[in-house]
Amino acid sequence: MAERGVLGLFSDVESAANAGTALREAGIEFEVLSGSPYPEGAFSEHTPPHRLYVFPFLGALCGFSVAILLTAGTQLAYPLVTGGKPVLSIPPMAIITYEGTMLGAILFTVLGVVFESRLPRPIVGLYDKRITEGWIGLLVVGEEGLLGPAERILRQHGAVEVKRG
Amino acid sequence: MQERKDLSDSQINRDLLWPVLSTPLWFWGLLLGLGGVVAVAGGAVGWWMNRGPGVAGINRPIMWELLIITFVFWVGISHAGVMLSAILRLTQAEWRRPMVRAAEVLTVFSLATAAMFPLFHSGRPWRTMYWVFPYDFSRGIWPNVRSPLVWDPSAIFTYLTGSALFVLITLLPDLAVLRDRTTGIPHKIYSILSLGWRGTPRQWKLQTLAGILLSALILPVFVSVHSIVSWDFGMAISVEGWHTTVFAPYFVIGAVHSGVAAVVTMMAVMRWLFRWEDYIRAEHFDAIGRLLIVVALAWFFFFALEFIFSLYLREPQEVAMRQLQVFEWPFNMLFILFILTAFFIPVPLWLFRKVRRNVALMFWTSILVNIGMWLERFLIIVPGLARKQAFTFDWSAYRPSPIEMLIVIGSFALVCLGLLVFSKIFPLVPVNEAKEGQVLKADIQVGKRKVPAIVREH
After folding, report:
1. Which residues of chain B have pLDDT under 70?
2. What is the C-alpha separation between B86 and B107, in angstroms, rounded?
3. What is the pLDDT, as a whole number, of residue B141?
């Protein structure tokens, strides 16, 4: 379902930042769309917290477990006693377990980045191609009653174009 | 960076995306040329598969040939890529911006190429299924996890997967730029690939964090991969010259040396081919040249240590192997060539700022380093194996066959082809990094000078 919203497009950072501050002061939540990263809070935007740091730990735990199962299981399934030493040989197990742990952590980190970025997003929604040309978009999503005042603020603060969707 | 030009976002898009959005004539020429070489090498591989490894110049006891030498070489090249990118990302070095993606992509293609060599070398690649992947459950046969030949695939698989994902995740914002600049089928493909990226502050923040987190995770993997490659040799304790205790760090630093040099080669080629003088500037070559001096000195230290350790005990076998490696024809000629090209010619040159800022000189010195580093692997593997047996009638000479040489040449063409095709589909210099560099650029006045003040976000 397409979101109901209003997108203000700004050709310069200053106007976008002023509009962001005004929206904030009016108690209207908004999202910033930009073609390059800006320092956090540059547009008075609110960025909800993320849990990315949990993902590598979970991944590492999974990878470690699978690697231990694989290396121990392999040696126990075909026990080959060499020189009277224990069947489970720790040094090679440590090597493969290390690689498994790191692989798990990397895979989960990537999944975490995608998940926490709220991707994939099948419908991009209100958007403008000029955003990747350096324009800044301020997007307000909500009920019709909220969109009117939001559009007014965006226009007042120098939005070059305002899109409704 | 003090030499950065003021560029608008649309100018950056135009400059960095033109290789993707338009196709110059030279692209087709290069594609055909490289494709032809790869096809010939593919024929050589087919011949090898059909006739068996006897078509190589292997001769007992030298059973590891150019394919294994080149395998180690490409694993080495693959190291610099992600290592360089990871270190520069973690330290938030400003000069990382134009080179991180090229370095990461070089890692992926060189590692994928390297991984093919042990399979070809086996002569019957399909049989590797029985000893590595997948496990042959039905016959109750399991791979021996105590063998370095099983550690190796596990490390390379982890590194290849990690590096490829690293490239993909950092590509997302640039895929969105391409989505916005294309129409028709390419637009649909880039729309799917960009996953609906819009560039919200949260997405940008997670991109930065992904770069840092993945760098921190991949760096230790990178160290482990070449350590494990060195153990392919180090665990063969009957071979002289293969088992000094510094072998793992010696291999790792050697890989960094050759890999960083390969990144320099690639930067020069990208600057020339794509006319990216505003992005890959003399100051970048200067910075990476300084890094190369440090890496080369560290590599030389380990190289000297490896020699000293092996000679210290004065074991007759080890001394004889070193004599073969350094004083006997043709290894003596190769040894001189190796040490000159890997260290004594490039490093003194890099000490001069004018050389470091000269793109052509940096290109040629980086090529020299990689000639030297390929020879280093040759001189570790062949003389060592030549004296593997105690009995003189088992000592043998090794002469590479044309089939092996074709496969090796084909591997260089394959990596170049991969990079060329990548540059046609994705931007080789991260567009968002170039834009961020412009956003975070500000000048401050100090007395009568204006100097850049780089703002960083943690």
Report:
1. 1-3, 129-142, 392, 441-443, 451-458
2. 12
3. 64
Out of A96, A117, A129, name the one closest to residue B203 (CB): A117
**pTM, rounded to two decimals:** 0.90
* Rounded CA Rg of chain A: 26
The residues, any chain, with a CB within 8 Å of residue A62's CB and separated by 6 or more, are A104, A108
What's B141's DSSP letter? B
**Distance in Å, alpha carbon of B13 to nearest chain A alpha carbon:** 7
ipTM, two decimals:
0.92
Give pLDDT, residue B58: 83
The SS3 call for residue A7 is strand
Question: Can you tell me the distance from the alpha carbon of A154 to that of A6, in angstroms, rounded to the nearest whole number?
Answer: 9
The residues, any chain, with a CB within 8 Å of residue B379's CB and separated by 6 or more, are B325, B331, B334, B335, B338
Task: Work out the minimum CA distance from B429 to partner chain A, whole angstroms.
Answer: 14
Distance CA A78, CA B89 (A): 45
Q: Which residues of B touch A40 (CB under 8 A)?
A: 201, 205, 457
Distance from C-alpha of A57 to C-alpha of B427, rounded to nearest angstrom: 32
Query: Using the beta-carbon criterion (under 8 Å), do A120 and B195 form an inter-chain contact?
Result: yes
Alpha helices in B91-183 (DSSP H): 100-121, 128-131, 148-181
The angle at the Cα of A156, spanning A154 to A157, to the nearest 5 degrees, equals 70
